[in-house]
Amino acid sequence: MAALAEEQTEVAVKLESEGPPTLLPPQAGDGAGEGGGGTTNNGPNGCGGNVAASSSAGGDGGTPKPSVAVSAVAPAGAAPVPAAAPDAGAPHDRQTLLAVLQFLRQSNLREAEEALRREARLLEEAVAGSGAPGEADGAGGEAASALLSRVTASVPGPAAPDPPGTGPSGPAAVSGSATGPAAPGKVGSVAVEDQPDVSAVLSAYNQQGDPTMYEEYYSGLKHFIECSLDCHRAELSQLFYPLFVHMYLELVYNQHENEAKSFFEKFHGDQECYYQDDLRVLSSLTKKEHMKGNETMLDFRTSKFVLRISRDSYQLLKRHLQEKQNNQIWNIVQEHLYIDIFDGMPRSKQQIDAMVGSLAGEAKREANKSKVFFGLLKEPEIEVPLDDEDEEGENEEGKPKKKKPRKDSIGSKSKKQDPNAPPQNRIPLPELKDSDKLDKIMNMKETTKRVRLGPDCLPSICFYTFLNAYQGLTAVDVTDDSSLIAGGFADSTVRVWSVTPKKLRSVKQAADLSLIDKESDDVLERIMDEKTASELKILYGHSGPVYGASFSPDRNYLLSSSEDGTVRLWSLQTFTCLVGYKGHNYPVWDTQFSPYGYYFVSGGHDRVARLWATDHYQPLRIFAGHLADVNCTRFHPNSNYVATGSADRTVRLWDVLNGNCVRIFTGHKGPIHSLTFSPNGRFLATGATDGRVLLWDIGHGLMVGELKGHTDTVCSLRFSRDGEILASGSMDNTVRLWDAVKAFEDLETDDFTTATGHINLPENSQELLLGTYMTKSTPVVHLHFTRRNLVLAAGAYSPQ
Amino acid sequence: MAEEKKLKLSNTVLPSESMKVVAESMGIAQIQEETCQLLTDEVSYRIKEIAQDALKFMHMGKRQKLTTSDIDYALKLKNVEPLYGFHAQEFIPFRFASGGGRELYFYEEKEVDLSDIINTPLPRVPLDVCLKAHWLSIEGCQPAIPENPPPAVTAFPPAPKEQQKAEATEPLKSTKPGQEEDGPLKGKGQGATPADGKGKEKKAPPLLEGAPLRLKPRSIHELSVEQQLYYKEITEACVGSCEAKRAEALQSIATDPGLYQMLPRFSTFISEGVRVNVVQNNLALLIYLMRMVKALMDNPTLYLEKYVHELIPAVMTCIVSRQLCLRPDVDNHWALRDFAARLVAQICKHFSTTTNNIQSRITKTFTKSWVDEKTPWTTRYGSIAGLAELGHDVIKTLILPRLQQEGERIRGVLDGPVLSNIDRIGADHVQSLLLKHCAPVLAKLRPPPDNQDAYRAEFGSLGPLLCSHVVKARAQAALQAQQVNRTTLTITQPRPTLTLSQAPQPGPRTPGLLKVPGSIALPVQTLVSARAAAPPQPSPPPTKFIVMSSSSSASSTQQVLSLSTSAPGSGSTTTSPVTTTVPSVQPIVKLVSTATTTPPSTAPSGPGSVQKYIVVSLPPTGEGKGGPTSHPSPAPPPSSAPSPLGSSALCGGKQEAGDSPPPAPGTPKANGSQPPGSGSPQPAP
User: Where is the composition biased (Low complexity) (chain B) (predicted)?
Assistant: First the structure.
């Protein structure tokens, strides 16, 4: 599969004649590579589809048109619901496709319609064609990926018809959670809530039960669950919340206001406290009219709430509901819940609590089954002569000898291909420039001076306080070599400081530049304008608070994302804005450069994360699937994956190559605000508003640790350069250091755990806490480990 | 944490009246109730929705406060025009507007009257954002620098002291290293972490920390540069000439957390200082050092036990030393002895345990020197004062039995041939001291009818005086019963005049604060002022007062010594050392009246009515203003001998005090912070 995919990319590279190699849209062939029918729904509307459409349309140049074509949803202008795009989680079939086409025709979007038609036909062929290679990969995997694509609902829109052979194992496993009946009309309706289709979604609620009976039904079930055996009770208790929500929504939809109110009053206290934010939204929702356009409500309606229940417990429930003839509840279970049944022991309350909490329940097991190449890419060889020269320059006699063996070891290590690493050219990466190589050498040198951290050797923390920021600091980033600090502010400015004695200078004016002797050795020095030297440069351009900032690895560029819906690329040579990337129509919460530069990812209020390349004004991929704002986005160290943390309390890992969601991590009880990968790429740490930091094993797709201690939102997370220490900074004005080695060392990743996804977290995360450092009412917005493992922390002093 | 939060959902809706009001403001006069209801529901829902979105912006802006701009952005999300004109306090200077196909950024500008602007002083330019770096942690330890939160404030203030105590009392306990490491490791409390970590861990390399076997790891004698500077500043201020600085320094010692690494230095400083200055008879410096001891004792975050062995000898020296000043006949070293005696008593109270037996050892020392026949009067006085301060039980068991003997000795000096003026003064002081301390005890011990003869029989020559004092003490106790919470003040008998005059002392630096010229015949005041830099000003009017006060406001009880002398006009001026313990933070002027309460400032006290001001105050930073409150002594006091009459003791660091107008009674003029009632009015006999 991987090999296939790789070929695809190569083809893609060839296709792209101008400019550096870049990711091409995963077109039909890509889907074939992935081998699953479901995947192909990356159609015109998906990630690259957009680009595809525009290119096939002969490059009509203007942004607006293609962006209309982007998705059936995107006429979005009309649809204020940003959620629209990602939400279609339903099965895809021809009917849906027809519905979308019809919609396009209605909306007079002829071009898009045509594109879609073309695409759809193409897709169908592709699916037909790809059946074979996919099957070669093993039916199981195929089924999984098909399922996966369905689960993640990664992209709405024209979906290829479900390849008949692939489905069975998936849906069949979900006994009774009939996906079929709800399907028709759903996709389209989700997409644009103002359209008539919306009512189709809602009409699922139309079934008229006796409103007065709801309370009885619910308390009946409650009684049953509470009286069941202990081992089942914990599992079945998971039903309470989704049932409660759906019953309440049904009541509201059918305009039984008073019943709904009393139902809510009576039972909302039973719900787990981590749902209270959603309950608050629900409680304000008291009229049918309110349901239109309420995003949370739409999330519930359009995505099935996933429960993971053991077979025994499920049988018990089923028998009970059938005995009682409790059709009302049974209908809800069938239509709105996805019950992921596993064989074996029921889980304990504790195990369940660790995993639940997200907006749409747990992740399906299948969602985390696909292979992730979490290993690091091979480091490029760097010519030794350069290195030697440099050392001679330093005039250190003893050093070269010492360094040689070390260098060799680095070289030999990098020669060995990490078995978990993706193929080197799985995604095309920019070539190293000379300056990059120099930087790498510097990096290696610093590495030799790096402090080995551990519980006995804690890092020093240098805190950069932004004074007089008046609560206006919204984003911070530090360059990898720790020479520059950028701050994004609520007053729309981006400020860049030099924290080394080297001042910031911009390049001379064009007229002056022409006078410079281009052959001279110090030409790079000469082009700089000494008169502009200062410690601080202010970048003006955004029209709203700057929520994200990221330096490029080569320190030539800076990205910033803002409330105004744009991501801007700034040159740090001229200190001017180079590009404004428009795509998110809503605030962009975060952006980050790939560790290899060139690519960057952004995520925002429109619930999607987008992958961009600096030289494309349109995104290369759209990662859609989150049910709420994408709060933070991070690249995997090997640049092949992107992790996103969302307000729907899930973390997703996306494959940059094909835009698929390859991991869904649930367990946080609040919106996720920080993410970081471990330097070896194996682990992910995430922090949320609930003050907890969770650790995940990417390869197995499991939660492996929970760090409790913070009392407020964890805003920043960072591993030390060698991964021994995890530093976390929070709104509670503390920096905490955790023992990452210990946290990861005794992982039980036996087969059973991996298979079932049941986890047993170590009890006491306090043992992992190595230090707590209070600041003086300064929330810790950013953390950074220098190459020598000194911690830099940053935040704005906010007087009480 | 979220788990603990109780879910609280309220279904608040706007009242329908407000809908009506809004409608009317829009010009829609009559609106149906039903419509209002519908509107209310809808509007409430929308408002909640917007608020929820606004919260999102707050979170992403990494703030704890919701601002109006958050709401603006939330409105923008909903495609609603933001509400212009509402700014948070920290507002963005320019606004965004769109309309007519254009997007505008504009500064909000109002029409202003130019003259207004010209006439108003320029506001301070708001500071630009700037970046400042500091060490939050150095190899795992948080340095105590201003940029970091103070260690004690972070969590539980008592923690460090408890820990100091634990360490002090059980230094070898094996949990100690654990505490050190676990503190930061487990984050038991942030307070413990920095306080503990800094200094100790900083010095000990972290590698050592892990060593399982370690005996006494407190061998840290380095101070950070900041601490060294602090130490230097503080010690210089404490013994320097500027009283204001001293007050601040003492205040700092008495209140600042996290001084305990400097304790060894302070302790050594004090003990060495006493050693040197006793030899040099430098009374002022000794007083300053004792005030430092007092301040250290008052600091709630310090646990002094480890340094008591150094401090006790120093304090004891100040009590019993044969000579503490250059001119024992004129300087008021008595006050120092009293003060130090009180300190020793306090030390005993705090640190005496069955293992160290501090109190019994001190008692023994005092008794020994008192019993000794050859002991000079000064030492004798100190021993008695030290014993007396230890409490009623000590007075009962140790002093009372010796009263007769002591009385004889005193009489021998007072009535006998004048051998030495110094002896006379000493004997006089001892006598008044004995009377002062014994009378209240006797008043409790003996049944009411006080018979002069019985007293004479029991206590010898001191009997009659004692008797009269006991009577007074009883009266006072009765009065006190009415005024709750007043501490005792006993006034001794009138004694021969102590006369000294103030030497004009130009140099503020002179440490020997009081140089007294030889004009002994004149009744003048003795001033042991805490202020060294008193302007040289002979005080012609006869008011006199002595104030010695500690100005630290941190202690719950403050000990103030004041020596009050009566007006000089009468031949028999009385000087009575008065001590009072004021259970309050800052002392003030007190009106003490026995019989009739006449306004003291105006009315000359008649023979029957005695008024007395006890001023125990030293304004912490007062320049001339706080200090010189003074009061002229109430008219020529009737010189009916036995009862010390209206003597006014006034405070003031400055000697011009005598000139200044009388303060209204009870007006906390010295420092306005004090409610008048909190002092200790004492009835004079």
Answer: 549-581, 672-685
